[in-house]
Design brief:
There is one protein chain. This protein is α+β, with helices and mostly antiparallel strands. The chain starts with a helix and ends in a 34-residue tail after the last helix. It is built from 11 helices and 6 strands. The longest helix is centred in the last third of the chain and has 33 residues. Strand 3 and strand 4 form a beta hairpin. The protein is globular, with a radius of gyration of 26 Å. 61% of the residues lie in helices and 9% in strands.
């Protein structure tokens, strides 16, 4: 049995034992974030907004100048994922053999540790039959010492259709999110959530332009997942903010936003840590087939999504006029809401800005 498989089984067994010990009370529950945090997030809003605007402009500039590295799904052509049976491979020798076929520029990308190579050959004139001929000639040229793990052939018509359908999918998703927000929240909350979603999308596309990861169908899936995940995180905080607005009429808006974010901070951190662990495993062990998906998700969900929900989606409500009459009121410690605490736990200190 391979070392990786043994490691996965060992981690799964350790996690199972740990969960059982916690369930039966042998080990106390782990508190990653205390319940009564008092972080002042709103003090950074004058930094986060200009910084996000600058990064968004940079991301759009990179998209229109540097562009995306369109994968085989959208560009058309032939992709072969091969592995040498001997365990090592000479890239220079393989390149010279493939260049001799006269198919134009051939891209070779080595990944993994056991002689795994990704071969990309540009689209050839002659339609689907010409692409199939490319696969046949490449196999004849490389010989029987190569194991072909994945072969993809995409013609020009199919690649254009896939790109069109992917674009339509993102537009429809954004439109559906708009409809949901329209019925769920007041217009200020809906607009704030939509700005946060577009912010995540723009920065993620900028990341893909900088790193030049393959932009293929899995990337479209990653962008759609980021939209949904970011919206869910924002809605959780917005629900708490709306609840606080109804409950506390005199609390200043900045203090109310801080308390709302702190109240959901433990949930947000635990959720993002577990998602990051799963994505990290996919990024390391998932192989090249889902590398674009894993890398895009890691950036969009873990890094950008977390930052946006706290430092963009929440403070933007102040600039949209939510709780406008509250900002002039200074709360005394007695007026501030006291979070619920477990029996026997120490009483938290009053909230201070």
């Amino acid at each position: 049995m391979e070392t990786t498989t043994l490691l996965i089984y060992g981690l799964a067994a350790a996690a199972t034992v740990l969960c059982l010990l916690v369930l039966f009370g042998v080990i106390p529950h782990l508190r990653i974030v205390p319940d009564n945090t008092k972080f002042d997030f709103m003090r950074f809003r004058r930094i986060s907004f200009p910084m996000s605007a600058a990064f968004s402009i940079l991301a759009l500039t990179l998209y229109f100048t540097h562009g995306l590295n369109f994968g085989i799904d959208f560009k058309g052509g032939t992709l072969l994922e091969v592995q040498s049976k001997a365990g090592s491979i000479d890239l220079a020798q393989m390149r010279s053999k493939l260049d001799a076929l006269g198919y134009g520029e051939v891209q070779l990308q080595e990944f993994g540790s056991n002689g795994e190579v990704l071969i990309r050959i540009s689209q050839q004139p002659g339609g689907e039959k010409a692409q199939q001929d490319v696969v046949t000639k490449v196999k004849d040229t490389l010989g029987s010492d190569i194991d072909y793990r994945r072969v993809e052939v995409v013609g020009p018509r199919v690649s254009q259709e896939l790109l069109g359908y992917g674009t339509i999918g993102i537009i429809v998703a954004i439109f559906c999110i708009l409809i949901y927000l329209w019925f769920r929240f007041e217009w200020q909350f809906a607009l704030g959530a939509m700005i946060a979603n577009v912010h995540d999308l723009v920065l993620t596309i900028g990341f893909m332009s900088v790193t030049q990861v393959d932009f293929d169908l899995t990337s479209i899936a990653a962008l759609l997942t980021i939209l949904g995940y970011s919206l869910n995180d924002t809605v959780v905080i917005y629900d708490r903010i709306r609840e606080m607005l109804r409950k506390y009429k005199k609390l200043s808006m900045a203090d109310l936003l801080n308390i709302s974010i702190n109240a959901t901070l433990s949930r947000s951190i635990v959720t993002h840590v577990t998602v990051a662990a799963a994505l990290l495993a996919l990024l390391i062990f998932g192989g090249h087939a889902i590398h674009s998906f894993s890398a895009t998700m890691m950036f969009g969900v873990v890094l950008v999504g977390t930052y946006t929900s706290v430092f963009i989606a929440s403070p933007i409500l102040i600039y949209l006029g939510v709780g406008e009459g509250r900002t002039a009121h200074v709360e005394t410690p007695e007026e501030l809401p006291v979070p619920s605490i477990a029996p026997g736990a120490p009483k938290p200190a009053p909230y201070k800005r």
